[in-house]
Amino acid sequence: MSFLRILMTGWAVLSTAVLCPVSSCTPDPGPAPVTPGKQDQDNKDNDEGGQQPGPGEPQQPEATGGKTLVVWYSFTGNSKSIANALRSHIAADAFEVQPAEEGLDYAANNYAIGSSLIAAIRKDPSSASSYPAIKDVDPALDGYDTVIIVTPLWWSQMAAPMQSFLFKYGSKMAGKTIGLIVTSASSGISEVEKDAKRLVPQGKFLSESLWIRSSQVGSAASLTAAWYDRMFKPQNEPSSMKVTVTAGGKTFTADIEDSETGKAFLAKLPMTLEMSELNGNEKYCYGVSLPRSDKSYDTIVPGDLMLYSGDCIVLFYGAAGGYSYTRIGKLTDVSSLASSLGKGSVSVKFEKQ
Ligand SMILES: Cc1cc2nc3c(=O)[nH]c(=O)nc-3n(C[C@H](O)[C@H](O)[C@H](O)COP(=O)(O)O)c2cc1C
To answer: Which of 76, 109, 181, 189 most suits a substitution to test ligand 1, by most atoms within 8 Å of the C-beta?
Structure first.
């Protein structure tokens, strides 16, 4: 119990820091901090049982070969958004795990209900009575080769209702390919991975789980697509890191970085951006969120394709420097780039080769 207390205190301090609104001078605040009550309302407004891709998501997912089921549980809506984002990229059915008792606020009174549910499971993980009841809906697992679990983290463990689901159905997942996607505010997910393996002992787990922090949920589509492609694309299928960039009737080739940012960019293609003019040396477009790892660039050269502030794509056609960016890639031949981009706003199409 004292261990739980330490965890609770530690995360409560963290959660205050992470979930409180960030200051307005932060250049990239990401999605709004999660307020459970509000998010629940948003879910209701947009609720189709979590079975439909969200607005603006691609509608024609790739076929995956075997049949895939995405099983998700969500208290404040993040796992639901992640499950929907993944399902916009792949052909998969979805199953929502729902607590039998509706309307519980697991976060109320300093997370009292959530933490006592986790404490009960920790105390006796082998007893069915340690797990909170879930709605008795059969997920018909026999029809699926692959199950992707999307769950929040609670006090470093897998959220209690998802643990209930896996305690009940884990043995029916023997021999199936199991993927794990975990969302937390800040805590690492290694204990959740252990929970999954304890509850699905015969599952064939993918080599990497995907961790999406609450602040990254806005990028869930690119993060889940990049993870899924990494896990499921045949090893011998070369994945091109080259893209074609078309502007002003001319086409250019860009080499994309072999990085988290580069892969997330590729996962969004094809994409046409209406890019604005700045300083006579760059075209830019906000609204494309990608993972960032900024560093300061003293020298920028024509053809540099950069990410600014985590959600702004910048294509340089003249020299610059002195700001922080994350490199997305680089155009290989820039001889007529400036004239093709022109002096004002321009439509630029990016496609995979
Ligand atoms: C009961 C409870 C306990 C939580 N414990 C942690 C924690 O220990 N560490 C952490 O980083 N986040 C913790 N969180 C935050 C959630 O993991 C995070 O907000 C997640 O994105 C929520 O996913 P959901 O919207 O699908 O419910 C906790 C949330 C709840 C409700």
So the answer is: 76
